[in-house]
Design a protein that fits this description.
The protein is an alpha+beta fold. The chain folds into three domains: 1-101, no CATH class; 105-221, Nucleotidyltransferase, domain 5 (2-Layer Sandwich), CATH 3.30.420; 222-295, no CATH class. It has helices at 2-13, 15-18, 33-45, 51-60, 70-78, 82-98, 174-188, 205-213, 227-239, 282-291; strands at 110-121, 130-135, 141-155, 161-168, 195-198, 217-220, 243-247, 250-259, 270-279. The strands form two sheets. Strands 1, 2, 3, 4, 5 and 6 form a six-stranded mixed sheet that branches. A hairpin with a 5-residue loop joins β2 (130-135) and β3 (141-155). Bound molecules: zinc ion. Zinc ion binds next to loops. Zinc ion (ZN) binds at residues 125-126, 128-129, 147.
Length: 295
């Protein structure tokens, strides 16, 4: 399987040749950057979670001379050229799309944006670390250092493809990071998707306006904090009959409203979908089916 993965990556994407263009800022490097990036790719392909696990795995396999040390990989990766890595991502995406490896979801190309947490440590920190106080069992408080980033994923029914990521820097929130990410993705992958989905955080006029400017639709979770839109949708739901359907033993009621004038800063209409779902007990389900003449 592993050999097949390497063979396929080279045959289809020419991977180990195109990564040779990546550079870093080390002066007079003894180990070429391509060996650093290869080691990182091997770590990913082997599904190893860290450079230390890679180092352990290669010492078991007696491959120590082929893979640079953990400290060399870490030091080089710190100054690696991100723009060059992104260009390789674009090249791989274009080949995958052209050869029809990716497919749309329900006829639409959908992007998902979300924040993710990376490493946490109470001992190790770097200048880019975020920090927070956590309360342990027994009320002991301690400082925890961690990293976060936002990721943009092109979501498909079979394969999901990460198009780009952006760090959430100390002192800033997910939206500031994702705004930079979205601007870059909209530039680099302008035709890759038509809809962007985010959680409740992304119900922000800045995000909706940016995506609208690039002719994209935005879908975000509507939470109660957005009181005006929420209340407007709720009062419309009281007046209108929902559409109903059943999947398995779950019964759904769906309201579909077009709401306008409820959101300062975003002058356009928004569509609010309210969903009510209820899992029916077998007895209740049988009663409903008997009533509708299905049994
Ligand atoms: Zn750090």
């Amino acid at each position: 399987m592993y050999r097949k993965l390497i063979w396929y990556s080279n045959k289809i994407f020419n991977l180990f040749s195109i990564i040779a263009t990546i550079t870093d800022e080390r002066l007079k490097p003894q180990i070429a950057t391509v060996r650093i990036t290869t080691a990182i790719i091997i770590m990913q392909f082997s599904n190893l979670g860290s450079l230390n696990s890679l180092s352990q795995a290669i010492s078991v396999k007696n491959l120590k001379k082929d893979i640079p040390s953990v400290s060399t990989i870490a030091r080089s990766a710190d100054s690696i050229n991100l723009e060059e890595i992104r260009n390789i991502g674009i090249e791989i995406y274009q080949k995958a799309r052209k050869s029809k490896m990716l497919s749309p979801y329900c006829g639409m190309w959908v992007g998902i944006v979300d924040g993710h947490e990376q490493t946490t440590s109470k001992y190790h920190r770097c200048p880019h670390c975020k920090s927070r106080i956590v309360t342990k069992k027994g009320g002991v408080k301690e400082v925890q250092y961690y990293h976060e980033f936002t990721a943009f994923i092109l979501a498909g029914p079979d394969i999901s493809f990460i198009l780009d990521i952006e760090p959430i820097l100390p002192g800033e929130g997910e939206i500031s990071s994702s705004y930079r990410l979205l601007e870059r993705v909209l530039g680099n992958y302008s035709k890759a998707f038509s809809v962007v989905i985010g959680d409740g955080l992304y119900l922000k006029e800045t995000v909706f306006n940016l995506l609208k400017k690039h002719h994209k639709y935005t879908i975000a979770v509507l939470k109660e904090e957005r009181r005006q839109i929420f209340e407007e949708a709720n009062s419309l739901s009281l007046l209108l009959e929902p559409k109903t359907y059943k999947q398995g033993r779950t019964y759904y009621k769906v309201w579909d409203h077009l709401v306008s004038g409820c959101w300062d800063g975003y002058g356009k209409k928004v569509r609010v979908i309210s969903l009510y779902q209820k899992k029916l007990q077998l007895k209740e389900l049988t009663q409903r089916m008997a009533k509708s003449g299905k049994i």
